[in-house]
Design goal:
This protein has 82 residues and is mainly α. Helix content is 18%, strand content 5%.
Length: 82
């Protein structure tokens, strides 16, 4: 979640859910060195250190309040959003 980002097509980002239910890039139970999902690896590196990430990437986790907080941010011109 970030109020400001360098992504050229957006001014901010928010992820109200962290983790994953599994896909071809992240197979629950497979050795970490065989996993190819960037989000999965990021979560494994940061879990327990940064509350912005799910505690277990294999179990999707809802972060209550994130959407409401982001909805209150102003736009790029500093104007209130509708």
């Amino acid at each position: 979640m970030s109020m400001h980002t360098l992504i050229q097509w957006t001014d901010s980002t928010v992820n109200p859910v962290g983790g994953c239910g599994g896909c071809e890039l992240w197979v629950p139970g497979a050795p970490i060195e065989e996993q190819t999902c960037y989000a999965g690896h990021s979560t494994q590196w940061r879990k327990g250190k940064n509350r912005a990430f799910a505690m277990d990437f294999n179990v999707p986790e809802l972060f209550p309040g994130r959407m409401a907080e982001a909805a209150a941010w102003s736009d790029l011109l500093g104007k209130e959003r509708a």
